[in-house]
Amino acid sequence: MSTAYHPQTDGQTEVMNRLLGNMFRSVVGDNIKSWDSKLPQVEFAHNHAKNRSLGFSPFQVIYGIVPRGPLDLTVVPDLTRMHGAAKDFVESLQETHSAARENLQLSAVRYKTAADRHRREVLFAPGDMVWVYLTRDRLPAHEYNKLKSRKIGPVKILEVINPNAYRLDLPASIKTANVFNVKYLSPFHGDNDNQDSEANLLLHGET
Fold first, then answer.
1. Inside any domain, residue 63
2. Three-class SS string for 68-112?
3. Is residue 121 in a domain?
4. Residues 77, 36 share a domain
5. Cα–Cα distance measured from residue 95 to residue 93, given in angstroms and rounded to the nearest whole number
6. pLDDT attached to residue 158
7. pLDDT tens digits, 98-118
8. Nearest to 179 by CA among 168, 191, 189, 194
9. Residues 126-142: pLDDT tens digits?
């Protein structure tokens, strides 16, 4: 289960939906309503596709074998694929999982390294003044408007919960939890109205 307006909490499903959408888009062409007749074709392609991060197809990670294709259905079957010792099968599956886990770890390191190039660490202390960005889920439905400013400040930091979470002294007019992630905060440097005028900021106490 994921919370409203936070699809990133269900990222695996979101990635799969996007992947299947791209695959269906490439096979249905102009006959969009024929998507259900393409399910076997898309399923076959997905089961054989090697995942870039895993290094294996998802089917192989789960079942330990590559699904059989048309070329495997020959007159003389490959008995080694059909009949194998249970011990050998389990060991093969464990080796696949181990290799997939290592590939995922390496992939995560690569993604983190790429993301860290554009990430900056911001640390605040109690008493610091900051600008606060209010996301849609923090505003009542009757108050939300796309053209209404969502940045308020200056707001004082009351408590540092951890480097990613801060408790703020919000104005009484803001009816939401006073704990914010650091990505929604930006430093307040004195009178910087001119600097942030393009963001349509609300000053402390403005309604």
1. yes
2. CCHHHCCCCCCHHHHCCCHHHHHHHHHHHHHHHHHHHHHHHHHHH
3. no
4. yes
5. 5
6. 93
7. 888 888 888 888 888 887 776
8. 168
9. 999 999 988 887 877 67
- Show the domain range for 66: 7-116
Q: Please give the pLDDT value at position 166.
A: 93
Same domain, 42 and 102: yes
105 contacts: CB under 8 Å, gap ≥ 6: none
Pair type for strands 151-162 and 202-203: parallel
Whether this model's pTM surpasses 0.70: no
Question: Rounded to an integer, what distance in angstroms lies between the CA atom of residue 138 and that of residue 70?
Answer: 54
Task: Note the maximum CA span of the chain.
Answer: 82
Distance CA 58, CA 48 (A): 8
What's the pLDDT band for 9 if we cut at 50, 70, 90?
low
